[in-house]
Amino acid sequence: MTTKFFKPKNPILQQYIEAYYFLTHSENDNPVTYYTFPNNFSYISLHENVEIIFAQNSAVIQEQQGSPFKCNLICHYKKPIKFTYKGNINEITFSFKPLGLNAFLNKPLLCYTNDFFSDFGVFDDYKDTFVTILNEADLDKKCDLIEKYWLAKLISFQHPFLKDVVADLKNIQEDYTVTRLASKYNTSRQNLTKQFELHLCKSPSIFKKIHRFKEALNMNLIKTPQENLTTMSYDLLFYDQSHLTKDFKSLTGLTPKMFFKSVSQLEKGAINWVFT
Fold first, then answer.
1. How far is C-alpha 235 from the chain's CA centre?
2. Could you tell me where the DSSP H helices lie in 188-255?
3. Which of 28, 63, 64, 122 is least enclosed by beta carbons within 10 angstroms?
4. C-beta separation of 18 from 96 below 8 A
């Protein structure tokens, strides 16, 4: 299996799309299995000629010629997802920043999802356009076609406080509670939580938990495997090391030490997979 990872070149798209990658798996390759972990990004994955078999927190993606084109949204999972690839697979996956996908939609993000892996056929022309892109061999042209498509779909996203609340929750120098944020933005706890569920498909507390987890991953990139977990806990404003361990086990099924021994980094700060 090979992956080719790209950041948007267009500065407008950079505000909304974190990255996208092309994944290919050959029938001559051994089946590949990996785990991916909860993230505050939203993902759209596109496939042609595949069958996707779902189970609880898992998906097997395997070749099936003649199968309908598939476009799936993944945005509100809270446990690791196990992916397995078999046969000839040609995939494009887009990673949208928190709130980013809302800038391309007429309704809140929650309206488009009902499970961890949801059909996402919201644009009339997405099938013909992306079948062409999937089969384009020239990488530069492929990227240009992708960016042209998303720019044409951009309608922007305005909200009185969500963008600022997201920035506050990502600030690891502050330990914002929902009550404090609601007071800061002159709204109720209930409304703040409702707006998060509508546009990010998760609560503010889950968003904060996942963000601290991702920050811990980034910290580990520049520290040795023996880095003191107590120091990491302090830097990320966890109550203590046991709090850090509890969150890691909740989101990955592994302790921090076990996780950092097995994680395989695709791109700094973007996507982290554990292969089995």
1. 24
2. 189-200, 204-221, 229-235, 241-252
3. 28
4. yes
pTM score, two decimals? 0.89
Phi-psi region of 156 (alpha: psi -120 to 50; beta: other; left: phi over 0): left
Using CA atoms, how far apart are residues 123 and 127, in angstroms rounded to an integer?
Answer: 8
Give the integer Cα–Cα distance in Å for 201 and 30: 35
Q: Could you read off the pLDDT of 52-79 as tens digits, one per residue?
A: 998 888 999 999 999 999 999 998 788 8
Place of tokens 């990872």: 5
Question: Does the CA dihedral 167-172-173-175 come out positive or negative?
Answer: positive
CA 164 to CA 211: how far, in whole Å? 15
156-188 confidence digits (pLDDT tens)? 999 999 999 999 999 988 889 999 999 999 999
- The pair of structure tokens assigned to 184 is 């800061």
Q: Which residues contact 109 (CB under 8 A, 6 or more apart)?
A: 42, 75, 101, 102, 198, 199, 200, 201
- Sheet (strand 42-47) strand order: 2-6, 17-25, 89-96, 42-47, 70-74, 118-119
Beta strands 50-55 and 264-267 are unpaired
242-272: pLDDT as tens digits: 888 888 888 888 888 777 776 654 444 445 6
Distance CA 140, CA 136 (A): 10
Domains and CATH numbers, the chain: 2-153 (2.60.120), 162-258 (1.10.10.60)
Residues with Cβ within 8 Å of 226's Cβ and at least 6 positions away in sequence, in order, are none
Angstrom distance (rounded) from CA 267 to CA 192: 32
